[in-house]
Design brief:
The chain has a domain of 51 residues. The protein is elongated, with a radius of gyration of 39 Å. 72% of the residues lie in helices and 0% in strands. By secondary structure, the chain is mainly alpha-helical.
């Protein structure tokens, strides 16, 4: 066995024999502070009103998005093939591709 192993075994044996000398009780007034915090109301955050308006804005934006999709879908369903050809001819005339 080398010298490191002997020193390590000796050190671990001494560490096992040593006791914990720290105090095992809670500090004075700890239980009172815990009970006081449990009974108190949580503190209002500064950005809580922003959350309220952000949620309302999100709902309004979602409603506008649904309405936009609905209106575009009705135009897509009600259009005929002739409407597509008329718009294509207009684009060709404007760009003079033909």
């Amino acid at each position: 066995m080398n010298q490191f192993d002997q020193q390590w075994r000796k050190l671990t044996a001494l560490a096992r024999q040593a006791g914990d000398t720290r105090a095992m009780s809670a500090p004075h007034g700890f239980a009172t502070r815990v009970v006081a915090r449990a009974g108190s109301r949580p503190q209002e955050l500064a950005w809580a009103p922003f959350e309220y308006f952000a949620l309302r804005g999100l709902m309004v934006a979602a409603a506008f998005g649904v309405m936009a999709v609905a209106f575009n879908f009705t135009n897509f369903v009600t259009s005929t093939q002739s409407d597509a050809y008329v718009s294509a001819d207009t684009v060709d005339e404007l760009l003079e591709l033909s």
